[in-house]
Fold this protein.
Amino acid sequence: PEDLLFSYDGILYPAALSSPETLEALKSFETRSNDVILAGYPKTGTNWLEEMVREIESTDAKYTEEEMKERINAEKELQMFPRLEFGDPGVFEILLLLRNPKDTAVSYYHFYNNMPVLPSFATWDEYFAAFMSGKLAWGSYFDHLMEWNRYIDHERMMMISYEELKENPVLGMKKIAAFFGFSLSEEEFSRIAKKTSFQAMKEKSKETHGKFGDILFRKGVVGSWRDLFSEAQNEEMDQKFEECIGGTILAMKIKYDVYCK
Ligand code: A3P
């Protein structure tokens, strides 16, 4: 039913996970100079990235346990807010997570239909149309990409992709650590890579995410889209992607031609 979602500033949100009051309050959310913001559209691997960053932060021992707790809470709230006004002088660094749009769409489809707090779609085709027009919780992935593309040259922003983290998690984490100013040893990086592997996180998911564990840690692979996309849908998304962000640095980072063709 429609009342599972509410609309705020033209974007849909699940009523069970957010509220107009929270979103309103976030407009005046005061960041501190050492805050870290993880920005990602749903299903781009946000839980994974969060876990990696948390491990990197706590291994470096730059923060006390108290400071760590505070930081993690703030990260969680901000994740809910897709369009945080960038340029707030308090915001220290923003890490933007990207995933190829076809796998993101498929991952979100399963999530949508399995999460009781979100409405269900009768068919993939129906869902696909909603994804393309952005009529889903947390809005359009294409709008999200276009919006963030405006800040691509910002010195306090870094991009990382799901696919590059899959391909070489240690290298990805090294880039993240360097950007945030953390220094870890080779052994520490490989320990974190093991601890945050899909298998390891899935096994622990009952503990960390309760009954939603199996929904959140579904497959964890690149290329799931091939199971569901029709030829016409492929073309439609190729075209939309080209129209919206074709030729941008952000599009290059997503490597659409490698992962979506
Ligand atoms: P799939 O549905 O394709 O499996 P989010 O955390 O933003 O909701 O993203 C969820 C997606 O990230 C799911 O994709 C999930 O399986 C995947 N994921 C979660 N943890 C992962 C990990 N440690 N390694 C790789 N993928 C992971």
